[in-house]
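Hello,

Our lab assistant flagged a job as stuck in the queue for most of the afternoon. It eventually completed. Since we weren't sure the result was trustworthy after the delay, we are filing this so someone can double-check. Below is the sequence as submitted and the structure that was eventually returned. Let us know if re-running is recommended.
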Amino acid sequence: MKTKLTLSNKFFTVSWILFHATLTLLFSVSLFFTNGLQFDADLYNMFPSNNLNKAAKIADKNITSTSGRSLFILSTHEDFAKAKEGAETVYEKLKDSPKFESVSLYSGTAEDMNSYQEFMSQWRYNLLTPELRELISTEEGAQEFSMEALSSLYSALSFGAAVDTENDPFCLDNTNLMNYMKYAQNAGPAMQPKDGVLANRWPLDENGNPTEETKWNVMLRLQLSDEGAALASKKNAVPLIYDVCLPLEKDGLKFVFSGTTFHSYKSSSDATNEVSIISTVSVILIIVMMLVVFRSPLPIFASVFSIAVSMFTAFFTTHFVFGGVHMMSLVFGTSLIGSSIDYTLHFFINWKGRKKMNSGRKIRAHLFNGLFLSLLSTEICYALLMGAPFYMLKQVAVFSFTGILSSFLTVTGLFSLLKIPPREKRVIPILNKINFTIPNKNLVSKIITAALLVFSLTVIFINRKDISVKNDLTSLYQPKGRLKDDAAKAFQILNYNPTSWFIVSGNTEEEVLQREEKIMTALKDKPYICTACFVPSIKSQKESYEAAKNLVALKDFRSEYLDFDDEIENNFVKDFESRDKKYLTPKNEFPEAIQSVLDIIWIGRYENKYYSLVLPAIVHPEEEAEYNEIADQDSNIYFENRIKDISYGLDRLSFMIMEMFLIAYVVIFIVLKIFYSWKDTLKIASVPALSVLMITAIFSLAGLKIEFFCITGMILVFGLGLDYIIYKMENKESKAETFAIALSFFTTAFSFGAIMLSSFMPVHVLGISIFVGLVTSFILTIF
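-- returned structure --
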C-alpha cells in the first residue's frame, strides 16, 4: 500500500526540497559571477598564522601571493653555451603560454638600460648612499670623490661609452645605477649577468675554484598566471614545464626545478588521486556490503544517492561561502561517507528486517530520537570548529556540517516515503546467522572497559615526558625523489630562500622609510632588499642634496678637467638648484624591474598606518637571534619566520580546539542529560573520553606528537563515536540496531583506515587519530 503523506512527512520532505534547492541555486549564481570552480591545495594555505597583527597578515598575503607564483628553472651543463641553449629552447616554448604572466631569461637589454638611465638622470642627487654622503660632506672628501669620478669618466670614454659630462660631470648616474643593481640582485637568486642571461657555476671548492663536478647554471624565472596557478587542475603550468623540459634532458643537459608551486602541485595531485581512490573504494565496499546484506538494489541506490547528495551539497555550500574548496576539505569530507551511511543503514535495517515497522513513517518515528541526537552531537562539534580563527578549519566545518545535515534530511524526508517490501521478503539472512549474545555481558563489559582505561593511562604515564602538543611544519611535508634532490640543489645554487622578513610600520611613509634605513645599517653587508634601497627617506634625500653642494662648488675642477665654459657651468648650476625640494617617494614611477620588486616589499597604507617589508635573501638559523634583536629595538618592527610562525600558530590552534572540545563535551553532556538518566548519560559521556585517552596512548607509542591534525581527528571522533553509543542506548536489546552499528562502523573505519596509507602526512595523521578513536568507540559501544 502506498504510504500516505502526513503533516510530519510533508514537513521533512519540504525541508529537504527547500534546503537542497536553495543551496544549489546559491552555488549556481555564485559560479555565474565568479571564475567558475576553484580548487586549492597550496600547502601554506592549509595552515594558520600565529601573529594576529594586521601588519603580519597583510605582509604575509602580499609576499606569499607573489612568491607562491614564482618559479625558477635552472638549465645546467658543464658547457655554458649548451646550458644557455637549453634555457633558450625552454624560453621559446613557454614565453607565449597563457599559463605564465612572464617568462624571463635575458637581462640587461638596451630597453632596460635606457629606462634605468632616464630614471637615474631624473633623481641623481636624491639617491646617494650614506657612505657617499659622508665622504662628500667635507671639501676634502668632495675633492677626493671628484678625482675618482674623473678616473671613471676617462675609463668609460676609452671604451667608447656615452657619458653626459655636461649634466653629470661626477658620474653620479653610474654610481647610483651600480648601487641599484646591487640591491636589485639581492632581490633574487645569486646569479650574475653573462652573455645576456643570468648564470653561475656550482659547485665550487672552498677557494671558489671549479671542480670536476662544476656545471654552469642558466636561470629562467617564471611568474604564473591565474590559469597556470590553478592547483589540482589540468591547466596548471607544472605539467607543461615538465613536458617541455624533460625531453631535452640528454647529452649532459639537466634541469633543476625550484618553487613552492612544484611541491604544491605534487601534494595537490596526490591528494586528489587519494581522495578519488578512497571515495571510490569506499563506495564499492558499501555497494558490495549492502548487496550481501539486503539482496535488493533499492538500499544500494538509496545509499549511493544519499552519499552523492550530501557530498554535492557540502561542496556547493563550501564553494559558495568561501569562493572555492581546499582539497583538504574533500579529504575530511570522506567522513561524510561514514556518517551518511550510518543514517541510511539504520533506516534500511528496519525497512528490511523489522516486520513490526509497517511504514516508512513508523521507521522514522522509531529512529528519530537516535538520529536527531546523533546529528545534534556531531553538528555541535562542527559548529564550534566554525568559530576557529583559521580559514581551512572553518571550511572543513562548513563542508561537514552541511553534508551531514543533508544526509539526515534525506533519510527523514525522502526515505520515509519508500514503499515497504512484502512481509515475506522482510528478512535479512545474514542477520539471523550472527549471534550478538555475550555471556556474562556485565562482567565482560567491565573487564574490557577497565582494560582499555588501564592500558591507555599506563602508556600515557610511561611516556608522559614525551607527550606534548607540538607542531612542526617541516615534518608535515617531506619532498621525495627528484623534487627533494632539486630542492637541495636549488638552495645551494641560488642561495635564495626568503622565508623570513621584517615587517615595518609607521604613521607616515617617511617613518617607515627611516625605520628601514635603521635596519639597513644593522644588516650591514648581508643580502637583503627593502623599499629604502631604492627610495631613500626624505630626510636622507635632503642630506644627499646638501652634501652634493660640495660637488657643485668645485667649479675650478670642472673648468680645468672638463672644459666647462660659462654657459655650460651656468646650466649645470641651474639644473642642480632646480632639484631642490623635489623628493622621490614610493608613489613615483620606477623602471619595470624595480617596480616589480617594490610591488612585493612596499605594502603601503592600510587603515591608518603604512607598512613595508625588509626581505633578507636568506636567513641562516644562527642569524635569527640577531634579527630578532634588531626588531626588538623598535615596537614598530616585527621579525617573522614564516615556518616557525605557522608551527606556533598551529600550536595555538591546537590548544584552541582542545578548549572547543571541552566546551562541546559539556554542552553535549547537558543535552544528553535532558534525554537520559544520570547513569546512561555517564555511560555515553565515557565513550569519547576513553577514545581520546586511547588516541593519546597510541600516538605516544608510535612516537608521534599530539599535533593539530591529531586533535582535529579527536574532535571528529567525538561526534562520530557518540553516534554508536546513542543508537545503542536507544535500542539496547535490538539485534538489528546492533547489526546496523557494526555495519556503519566498518564502513567508516574502512574510509579512515584507508587514508592512514596516504603519503600526505596531515592526512595520514588524521586517519590514524580517527581510526583509533572509532575502534575504541565501537568496542565500548558493543560491550
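-- support follow-up --
The delay was a queue issue, not a problem with the job. The result is valid. The chain is about 65% helix and 10% strand. Confidence is low (pLDDT under 50) at residues 1-7, 157-161.
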